[in-house]
Every structure is written in C-alpha cells, then in structure tokens.
C-alpha cells in the first residue's frame, strides 16, 4: 500500500540521486501520481527507465554552479518546481589513517554541501512561486556513530541542523523536512558491506542490529519520503526516522 495518495497532475518535482536506490524509487512514485519529474544524476545517460514525462539532467550536487544549472534546465523544461528531494549521497568506508583530506572533502561536498546547494536553489524558486516542499535525506548515522565512517556520520549529522535552520527561515511559504533511513537494500549498502568484508556473516550482523530484523526495501522508504513531501502539510523542520528501530535500541 502506498504511503502517498492523490493525483499530482500539474505538479513538478526535482529528485537528485535518481539513478538508483531511494532516489530512483521516489522519482518513479511521484511520476506514477502524475507529476512531471526532473531526474538528476551525475550522468543523465545513467538514468534508466526514466518515468513517463520525466527529464534526465546531469549534475554534480557537490558543485554549486552545476546544481544551479540543473534547476534552470528543469524550470525551463517543466515549469515551476513544487517538490524537491535531495537523495544524492555517497558513503565510502575508510580507516582513520586512510581517510585523506580529499576523501573527507568529497563526502562533505556531496552529502552536506550538496544538500545546502539543492535546498538553496529550490528555495529561491519556491519563494517566487509562493509555496513548496523540500525533503533532505539524512541517515540513522546522523544519530549514531559507526567505525570507518566518521566523514559520512559528520556530513549526515550536519543535514539535521541545516534542515531545522532552513525550516525556520523559509516558513510559512516552504516546508523543509529530513528523512533519516536506516539500512536500505540498495547498491550503496552493498558497496559498504563489501568494504567491511562482504561475507554472509557481515551482512547478517548488519541485519541483526535492526530491531525489525531486515533491511528496508527502497520502495517503502520512497513512500515514506513522498508522504512527508506531499501530504504531511503541518510538518516542517522535523527529523523523521525510517530506520527499523535502530535509533530506538
């Protein structure tokens, strides 16, 4: 059962990280409800199975100019943007002694600075239109620590403060919320598991730390995100966990 109901015909959304995983499912769900969707990824050609009426845009969310150009192209092609989800992200485990300044900056640029650049460009345009809703994507690791991921934890924790500050500044015209998923069965999760050893035992240990004893399906996280984005009209500045209970344990 979908967490979002009602038609979005006549509405426009921009989704980053639309190549795979959560971002791809968010774009598909919004398109299924009738929205025009700008699907942003590092390579427009990598956006497979583009939703009906969708637009593929290549952009690097870690680059402010690239993000601005993506919004300009989306607006020119699809009209004023009503909804924005920043699902682009990266997580590269590294031991502290191997965590170079370059790797640190890359994680901060894509995960934290990218969230700021996307929210800023969205807000500028939504203010002109008189309304809008933005969802940034945090992580259970914004609340918890995990070895070999201090750069990722720091970047995702920063998104929580960014969300609250933007929500206060942009109310009442624009809503800004943050969804923090737990472990999700995506290519990014598989890459991280491989970095930790990739054995069946490593995977099972990751599952065992989730009270619901499974990884989330990206579709169910997308449904939660879209509910917050579209239907939770009295919610702003909130940090909403969809983590199978990991932060409650």
Automatic annotation (TrEMBL):
Annotated ranges, domain Ketoreductase: 11-177
One GO term of the biological process aspect: fatty acid biosynthetic process
Keyword entries, A-Z: Oxidoreductase
A Pfam family assignment: adh_short_C2
EC nos: 1.1.1.100
Enzyme class: oxidoreductase
Family membership noted in the UniProt record: Belongs to the short-chain dehydrogenases/reductases (SDR) family.
Protein name, entry field: 3-oxoacyl-[acyl-carrier-protein] reductase FabG1
Lineage: Bacteria, Pseudomonadati, Pseudomonadota, Alphaproteobacteria, Rhodobacterales
Gene: fabG1
């Amino acid at each position: 059962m979908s967490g979002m109901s009602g038609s979005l015909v006549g509405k426009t959304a921009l989704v980053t990280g639309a190549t795979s995983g959560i971002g791809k499912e968010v774009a598909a769900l919004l398109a299924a409800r009738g929205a025009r969707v700008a699907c942003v990824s590092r390579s427009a050609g990598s956006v497979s199975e583009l939703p009906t009426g969708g637009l593929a845009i290549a952009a690097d969310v870690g680059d402010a100019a690239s993000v601005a150009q993506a919004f300009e192209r989306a607006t020119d092609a699809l009209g004023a943007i009503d909804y924005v989800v920043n699902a682009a992200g990266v997580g590269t485990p590294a031991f502290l002694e191997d965590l170079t300044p370059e790797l640190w900056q890359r994680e901060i640029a894509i995960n934290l600075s990218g969230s700021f650049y996307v929210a800023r460009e969205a807000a500028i345009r939504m203010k002109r239109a008189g309304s809008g809703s933005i969802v940034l994507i945090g992580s259970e690791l914004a609340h918890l620590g995990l070895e070999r991921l201090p750069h990722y934890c720091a970047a995702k924790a920063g998104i929580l403060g960014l969300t609250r500050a933007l929500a206060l500044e942009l109310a009442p015209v624009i809503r800004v919320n943050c969804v923090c998923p737990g472990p999700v069965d995506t290519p990014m999760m598989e890459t991280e598991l491989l970095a930790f050893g990739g054995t069946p035992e490593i995977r099972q240990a990751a599952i065992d730390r989730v009270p619901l004893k499974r990884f989330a399906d990206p579709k169910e996280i997308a449904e939660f995100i879209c509910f917050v984005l579209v239907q939770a009209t009295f919610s702003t500045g909130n940090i909403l966990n969809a983590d199978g209970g990991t932060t409650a344990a």
